[in-house]
From TrEMBL:
<protein>
    <submittedName>
        <fullName>Histidine triad nucleotide-binding protein</fullName>
    </submittedName>
</protein>
<feature type="domain" description="HIT">
    <location>
        <begin position="4"/>
        <end position="113"/>
    </location>
</feature>
<dbReference type="InterPro" id="IPR036265">
    <property type="entry name" value="HIT-like_sf"/>
</dbReference>
<dbReference type="InterPro" id="IPR011146">
    <property type="entry name" value="HIT-like"/>
</dbReference>
<dbReference type="InterPro" id="IPR001310">
    <property type="entry name" value="Histidine_triad_HIT"/>
</dbReference>
<dbReference type="Pfam" id="PF11969">
    <property type="entry name" value="DcpS_C"/>
</dbReference>
<feature type="short sequence motif" description="Histidine triad motif">
    <location>
        <begin position="97"/>
        <end position="101"/>
    </location>
</feature>
């Protein structure tokens, strides 16, 4: 498989990891959109949220637990952060491996309601 995020999980592409456990990896985005910009991925390859099966739901909870821990460790839990998942080409998803962007470190623009 030619997935850049799978290669980061394997360690064949370098990254600056800020979180790792047996199921989830968090690493600094190479094109940060905020002072704190961490990409959080499952180690299991799932293309996007539409590919999440019933048995993957605990993994989604693991990703959210990792996000909460990363936010605390990066100092943005109290001031606030955004957790974004893009699903599909029209959303702007560029890497088709399920991932979330944790953004913070300054006042973010208002999200679309």
């Amino acid at each position: 498989m030619d997935c850049i995020f799978c290669k980061i999980v394997e360690g064949t592409i370098p990254s600056t990891k800020v979180f790792e456990d047996e199921r989830v990896v968090g690493f600094l985005d190479i094109r940060p959109a905020a002072p704190v910009h961490v990409v959080i991925i499952p180690k299991k390859h799932i293309s996007d949220m539409n590919g999440v099966e019933e048995e993957d739901l605990p993994l989604i909870a693991d990703i959210h637990r990792a996000a909460r821990q990363i936010a605390v460790e990066r100092g943005v839990a109290e001031s606030g952060y955004r957790l974004v998942n893009n699903c599909g080409p029209d959303s702007g998803q560029e890497v088709f491996h399920l991932h979330y962007h944790l953004l913070g470190g300054h006042k973010l623009g208002l999200p679309i309601a």
